Amino acid sequence: MTAQPVHGDGAALAIRGLRKAFGGVVAIDDVSFDVPAGTLTALIGPNGAGKSTLFNLLTNLYRTDAGTVTFFGTPLAGKTSDAIARLGLVRTFQTARVFPGMTVLENVLAGMHVSARSPIWAHAFADARARREERTMTRRAEALLDAIGLSAMRDRDATALPLGSQKLVELARAVIARPRVLLLDEPAAGLNDAETAQLARLLVAIHRSGTTVFVVEHNMSLVMGIADNVLVLDAGKLIASGSPADIQANAAVIEAYVGRATAVPT
Question: Is 32 part of any domain?
C-alpha cells in the first residue's frame, strides 16, 4: 500500500506540500498527509528519514520552505510555540526536557499554564478561585504521577531522575495541559521494557480519553501494538501509509528499512 490520498475533512492536522532543505540537503520533500481527529497515528522511518524535522515544522521550530500546516482548519504559519500550545497542539521532544531547580510535581504542574483560567497574579495573591484551581491542578498532577509510577518521586528534583523517568515526567506535563492533539517525539527512547509497557498503556488511555495522538517512534513493537494508522518517511518522502498490518507487508517499507525482502521489525 502506498501513501494514501489526503482529504482534510475531519483532520486534526492537515499537511500539504511540506518542504524543508538545509543547504543543499532536502530533509522534507513535498510531504502531504492528514492526521485524522481521534486517531493514534505513528510516524516511522529509518534513521535520517526526516521524522524529527517534520515535527519541528509542525510546531514552527523550523520555518518551512514550502507547504502548509493546519490544525483543525486553522493555519499554523507564523504562530509562536506558545500560541500553538494554547490552540491545543502540545508536543514533547526527543531528548527529555525537565525544568532544573523544580521538583517532579512542579514540573508536571508547569504544563497547566496553557489551560489555567486564573491569572498568575491571582495565584501570587492567594485569590480564593486561584487556590481552588491550584488544588484541582495538584490533584490531577498527582493522579498522573501515580499513573506513570512516579508518585514516590514527586518531591525530588526532576533532573536527578533517570532519563527514562524524565521522559515520563515530560509526557505527564504535556498531558496535564489537556491537548486536543499530542505530538510525541520518540517517547520510548531511553525506557526499559517495563517502562515501555507502561508507556504503551498510558498512550492507549490518553487516546481513549479523546486526545488525538501523533507519535514518532523507533520502537516497532510499541508502534505496531498501539497505532491505528502508520505513516512511513524515507529520505524526506512519504512512501507509505496504512494500518500496522499493511505497513508490515509493504515492500517499499521493507526496502527502506533493510534493503532486501524481509519483514519490517515488529
Answer: yes
Q: How many CA atoms are closer than 13 Å to the CA of 168, on its beta-carbon side?
A: 30
- Sheet containing strand 74-75, edge to edge, reads 25-36, 11-22, 66-71, 74-75
Q: What is the DSSP string of 174-189?
A: HHTT--SEEEEESTTT
Angle of helix 163-175 versus helix 193-208 axis, rounded to 10: 10
Residue ranges with strand state E in 8-162: 11-22, 25-36, 40-44, 66-71, 74-75, 89-91
**Bridge partners for 14 per DSSP:** 34, 70
Contact in structure between 188 and 94 (CB atoms under 8 Å):
no
Q: What angle do CA 116, 77, 75 make, to 5 degrees?
A: 75
Query: Residue 263 domain-assigned?
Result: no
List the one residue out of 26, 71, 79, 24 whose CA is nearest residue 49.
26
Residue 1 covered by a domain? no
State if pTM tops 0.85.
no
pLDDT by residue for the chain (266 residues), tens only, comes to 344 444 445 899 999 999 999 998 999 999 999 999 999 999 999 888 999 999 999 999 999 999 999 999 999 999 998 899 889 999 988 777 888 999 999 999 988 765 554 444 444 455 667 677 778 889 889 998 998 889 999 999 999 998 888 888 988 998 888 899 999 999 998 888 888 888 898 899 999 999 999 999 989 899 999 999 999 999 999 999 999 999 999 998 988 876 644 455 55
Strands 40-44, 25-36: parallel, antiparallel or unpaired by DSSP? Answer: unpaired
Strand order in the sheet with 40-44: 89-91, 181-185, 212-216, 40-44, 229-234, 237-242
Q: For position 248, which CATH number holds?
A: 3.40.50.300
